Amino acid sequence: MAVFGSDSFTGTSGTTLPAYSGNWVRPSWSGAVDWKISDANAAYAVGASCYVYHTAAPASADYTVKADVYIASTGGSSAISPGVLGRLSTSAATYYFARLVNSGGGLWRLYKRVNGTWTQFGSDVAGSVAAGESHEVKLSMVGTTIALYKNGEASPAITATDGSITAAGLSGLGDNAASTATTGFHIDNFSAYEAGGGATYTLAADSTALTLAGQDAGLIASRILAADTSALTLAGQDAALTAHRRLAADGAALTLAGQDATLTYTPVSGATYTLTAESGALTLTGQDAALIASRRLAADSAAFDLALQDAGLSHGYVMAAASGDYALTGQDAVLIASRRLAAESASMTLAGQDAVLTYSNEAPAPVAGAMAGNRAATESMRATRLQAGARAGRTQTSGRPAR
Amino acid sequence: MKQYYLCDIIGDGSEENAYRPAVSDHSVSWVGSIPSDPVTGHPISTWALVLVATNNHAKLRNKPGIDALPDFPMDGKVSAINTATKNAMNLVLERRSIPTGLFGNADGYRDVIRGIGRQIDPAFDENNFDVAE
């Protein structure tokens, strides 16, 4: 999703947005008041009917505009209601508007305005407006589907089907009452970006790199996601990779990195489910990185690596490391297998403070294992058969947990 | 639970009193199409077809400007709707100058809903008309 306009309002307090940057223009149909830079590098409206648009033009009429509404202080006029605009006309008061209203404890509202006439979509959605809070408002416009998202939620709070405004127009900011440089409601972290798309069936990168990057980058494949002989890279804050069927990296690296990076493989009933890294590395790193496979998770002849704080590896059925090493390290590292846990002809290592190895059903095949670390523990609901294993550390327990 | 309604459009088009269907003031989730005149911005119709999602449809009963359409499966046959219900719905349609033949001539209930929606929006598609519970 290409960002075509953004601003974090890093400027001198009291400067009007048009003076702060030529990217901002007050439309002719707005009130004769400007948005200004606040004391804390945000923006605020100085009066009623206060609008400004960003001059960056979107490539199409399908795009998203979002910003953070920061509550500098509570109280004030109930008409304080900042938000983001899309498909804005510079010649007439026509636009879609997603906003947070300073009324009723905070209300989310979605509107269209056509030549000055207002129509509200959906009912008010309750929000929160406590001092010091920051709430994300997002306006999504794709075809005739207009939606308001709040606070980064995956599902829209308000949705409308409307064909009144089809021209791409521009993005912007609006409010209907004054705040000040230190009080009221402020806007920060404005961004406008093209609507995302994605492959419904096959997404491939044959002999070519496949890259998806950027804030909130999302890659969703409902059928086959493959990177034959090529690298598949997904990076960026809150990057997510979701595959509902087969996810493979034959002969190539599959890398998912970044804060809160998530790799999810969700089985679909009746299909064959496989998450593999044949002859390639399967790597998942980053704070709170999680790897979840609901069926078979294998690393034939390859290394499995899950490291870092709160690293988690969950597998609902079989977890194996045939001829490969299993390694799970890091503070609070957790390895959970609900069925069979095996490490045939290979070592299985679980190390680190509070490392826990839990399996809840059949006992594993005899395996050389190592449990080390402060308070390293093995728990089994049946029996623990960690044969020929070396144990070290201050506290170790095995067998059925105490009741 | 979801149900279709015919609602009067209320409001005056100002920012403080924006146009909206009458159900909007009853704290329910709804989706509806309110096409606007491209010149004036005012709704081209005095009523709107809305799909409401709520666990308490009873609170919308007998409210001014709000008429419930039969709670009936979209793929059900109009012939299976009892006569009293059909007569009540015809009165609702007549009050809004909507052709009552939509009920009398339709095979499935889906055809009725589609026919009502297309009275004000030729592109109305009941399959793309949904609201979250």
Describe this structure in words.
The complex is a heterodimer of chains A (403) and B (133). Chain A is mainly beta and 403 residues long. Helices cover 1% and strands 41% of the residues of chain A. Chain A contains 1 helix and 39 strands. Chain A has one helix spanning 17-20; strands spanning 3-7, 24-25, 35-37, 43-45, 50-54, 63-71, 83-88, 95-101, 107-114, 117-126, 134-142, 145-150, 158-161, 170-175, 185-194, 202-203, 210-213, 218-221, 224-225, 232-235, 240-243, 246-247, 254-256, 262-265, 274-275, 282-284, 290-293, 296-297, 304-306, 312-315, 318-319, 326-328, 334-337, 340-341, 348-350, 356-359, 369-371, 377-380, 390-391. In chain A, the strands form 7 sheets. Chain A has a 9-stranded parallel β-sheet with strand order 17-20-23-26-29-32-35-37-39, with no helix packed on it. Chain A has an 8-stranded parallel β-sheet with strand order 18-21-24-27-30-33-36-38, with no helix packed on it. Chain A has a 7-stranded antiparallel β-sheet with strand order 2-5-14-7-8-9-10. The longest helix of chain A is centred in the first third of the chain and has 4 residues, at 17-20. The radius of gyration of chain A is 27 Å and the shape is globular. Mean pLDDT of chain A is 73; it is low at 197-204, 267-273, 361-376 and 379-403. In chain B, 22% of the residues lie in helices and 19% in strands. With 133 residues, chain B is α+β, with helices and mostly antiparallel strands. In chain B, strands 1, 2, 3, 4 and 5 form a 5-stranded antiparallel β-sheet that branches. Chain B contains 3 helices and 5 strands. Classes of the chains: A mainly beta (403), B alpha+beta (133). Chain A binds chain B through residues 94, 111-120, 122-124, 144, 155-156, 159-164, 176, and chain B through 11, 13-15, 18-20, 23-31, 33-43, 121, 123, 128-129, 131-132.
